[in-house]
């Protein structure tokens, strides 16, 4: 079982407690949305899981293994950012293959894997373009492919749809959900939008003031008083 567990996880920045001893058990192969007002600790939680931020207290376990102190690339997690953070001077293919290059995978192998990922997100024909020759929705798919090429057990998405226009946003929701099912991995998706969470999630976590206020199956969370 590839379950992810947060055990009394806290994050402090100086005197600010951004995340206050939260506990949560993410089921494997589930789509979880993390909701809550700005500043409640959503991004800090995601960044601690990804390893882009250290935990101040507590532990993060993936498949029973404590990953809290591992570097991001060794955790079995991958993160897709709000602004996509693509390298402007690299082709789509090289952007997707980048992490494999860092690992020393040879050109032929990493390009083959990158093409496989581009197929997965329907960008087969755009491999040689530069990021600024793509639409917002296409850039977002490149960022997805780039995160997925590391074969994570858990994909972390920080407001992945917020830069898209409303039409694309709704379409990408469906694509994200489909991808999660196909890959059979867990997605943890931070969003401001209740409608987005309800459309996507198996489970919803509502954070407020650094703690988990409510959590459970999507329907239960929104139907409770
Ligand atoms: P959210 O993602 O829900 O908007 P964040 O996790 O970004 O919340 O932030 C939670 C709290 O921690 C906020 O009060 C924010 O100002 C603070 N915070 C976040 N990152 C830092 C940081 N690098 N240094 C200091 N304070 C931070
Ligand atoms: P968002 O609001 O989009 O969730 P933020 O704007 O809170 O994200 O965070 C963007 C970056 O700024 C992060 O790297 C975060 O650590 C940093 N940051 C956020 N709040 C603070 C803060 N109060 N002091 C210092 N850095 C912060």
Please give a quick description of this structure.
The mean pLDDT is 93. Strands 6-7-8-3-9-10 form a six-stranded mixed beta sheet, sandwiched between helices. Strands 2-1-4-5 form a four-stranded antiparallel beta sheet, with helices on one face. The chain contains seven helices and ten strands.
Mind telling me the C-alpha Rg? 17 Å
Mean pLDDT: 93
Number of strands: 10
Order of helices and strands: EEEHEEEHHHEHEHEEH
Shape, principal axes of CA atoms: globular
Give the topology:
Elements: E1 4-13, E2 16-26, E3 31-35, H1 42-50, E4 57-62, E5 65-66, E6 77-80, H2 92-102, H3 107-120, H4 136-148, E7 154-158, H5 166-183, E8 186-190, H6 194-200, E9 203-208, E10 211-217, H7 218-223
Helix pairs in contact: 2-3, 2-4, 3-4
This protein binds adenosine-5'-diphosphate (2 copies).
One adenosine-5'-diphosphate binds next to strand 2 and helix 1.
Architecture overview:
- This protein has helices at 42-50, 92-102, 107-120, 136-148, 166-183, 194-200, 218-223; strands spanning 4-13, 16-26, 31-35, 57-62, 65-66, 77-80, 154-158, 186-190, 203-208, 211-217.
- By secondary structure, it is of the alpha/beta class.
- A hairpin with a 2-residue loop joins strand 9 (203-208) and strand 10.
- The two termini are 33 Å apart.
- The mean pLDDT is 93.
- The structure holds adenosine-5'-diphosphate (2 copies).
- Residues 13, 16, 18, 36, 38-44 line the site of one adenosine-5'-diphosphate.
- One adenosine-5'-diphosphate (ADP) is lined by residues 38, 43.
- This is Putative spermidine/putrescine transport system ATP-binding protein.
- One of its GO terms (molecular function) is transmembrane transporter activity.
- Keywords: ATP-binding, Nucleotide-binding, Transport.
């Amino acid at each position: 079982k590839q379950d992810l567990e947060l055990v009394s996880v806290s994050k402090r920045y100086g005197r600010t407690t951004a995340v206050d001893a939260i506990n949560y058990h993410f089921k494997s192969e589930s789509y979880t949305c993390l909701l809550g007002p700005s500043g409640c600790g959503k991004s800090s939680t995601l960044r601690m899981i990804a390893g882009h931020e250290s935990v101040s207290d507590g532990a993060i376990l993936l498949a029973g293994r404590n990953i809290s102190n591992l570097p991001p690339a060794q955790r079995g997690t991958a993160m897709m950012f709000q602004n996509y953070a693509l390298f402007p001077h690299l082709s789509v293919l090289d952007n997707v293959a980048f992490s494999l290059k860092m690992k020393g995978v040879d050109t032929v192998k990493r390009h083959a894997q990158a093409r496989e990922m581009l197929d997965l997100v329907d960008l087969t024909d755009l491999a040689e373009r530069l990021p600024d020759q793509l639409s917002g929705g296409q850039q977002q798919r490149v960022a997805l492919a780039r995160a997925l090429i590391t074969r994570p057990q858990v994909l972390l998405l920080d407001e992945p749809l917020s830069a898209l226009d409303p039409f694309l946003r709704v379409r990408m929701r469906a694509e994200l959900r489909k991808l999660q099912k196909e890959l059979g991995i867990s997605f943890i998706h931070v969003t401001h939008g209740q409608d987005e969470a309800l459309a996507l999630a198996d489970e919803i976590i509502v954070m407020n003031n650094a703690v988990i206020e409510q959590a459970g199956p999507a329907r239960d969370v929104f139907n409770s008083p």
